[in-house]
Write a structure and sequence with these properties.
This protein is an alpha+beta fold. The chain has a 3-stranded antiparallel β-sheet, with no helix packed on it. Bound molecules: zinc ion (ZN).
């Protein structure tokens, strides 16, 4: 869920609230004075990237970065599994000529 930044209209403190996209501003309660007079502010990301009017751009970017990491994590287990495969080579029974196997090119 996206994080929205609000400023309370009563105590004028700003706070962040994690809400669904469909949450209404009127329903947002100030965590300090519990007044429902909050105003939604632009996220700090959006104010940093000037000229980008797409909402949630930073979030999408972060999500794609997470997906990349997840991809790398997902690729790790197969790599480990492949490393386990050459290990049976240590038993020279399957390799009649040591050093002449497919691993000799390494
Ligand atoms: Zn307040």
């Amino acid at each position: 869920m996206p994080v929205y930044e609000y400023r309370c209209g009563k105590c004028e403190k700003s706070f962040e609230a994690t809400q669904s996209v469909h949450a209404r501003v009127e329903d947002t309660e100030c965590p300090f004075c519990h007044a429902q007079e909050a105003t939604r502010l632009l996220s700090s990301f959006a104010s940093t990237i000037k000229g980008d009017h797409k909402p949630g751009f930073a979030e999408l970017k972060a999500k794609s970065m997470i997906n990349e990491r997840m991809d790398k994590f997902a690729k790790l287990p197969p790599l480990n599994a492949k490393r386990n495969v050459p290990q049976p080579n240590t038993s020279s029974d399957s390799n009649p000529i040591p050093g002449a196997g497919p691993d000799a090119g390494m």
